[in-house]
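$ run holo --ligand "heme C" --emit tokens
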Amino acid sequence: MKLLTLALLVFSFNTLAFDAGKNFQAVCVSCHTIGGGDKIGPDLAGLDKRRKAEWVHKFVNYPDGMINGDEEEEGYEKPDPIAQKVYALYKPQMMAEQAMTMDQVKATLKWIADQKKEPKGKITTLK
Ligand code: HEC
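-- output --
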């Protein structure tokens, strides 16, 4: 019984404490670097400076909707001009849809800022 309680506590603690760095290494690193240049997607160094949290949240949850627009999805009715420009640089590969909350996005942006790296690659040509 004690063990079960402990296991449950550890489990709920882990789900509450989102570790942005670990999540990045597990989920994003196959397509993105922080300061290492282009991979499948853009170098995300400096993301905290070039995009607002609201934009990143909307984008990672539904990249296709941001790039192409989706009349049936609230908030995604019209294509987003920045998302279209980013896609134009990295197509035909499109970002894989993620389920991220705003808090997780904010934690990720803070973690990226803490890396203190400058972006390299094609994304730097987008002004
Ligand atoms: C399967 C590959 C893949 C994975 C996994 C992936 N991405 Fe991407 N991502 C891309 C590609 C390709 C683009 C650029 C093309 C596009 O817009 O779809 C992109 C673009 C982005 C952008 C826009 C960058 C900018 O400067 O505007 C953000 C933000 C982003 N990704 C965040 C993330 C985060 C955070 C994760 C992990 C939770 C992640 N991505 C996982 C492929 C991926």
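-- notes --
Residues 2-125 form a domain with the Cytochrome Bc1 Complex; Chain D, domain 2 fold (CATH 1.10.760.10).
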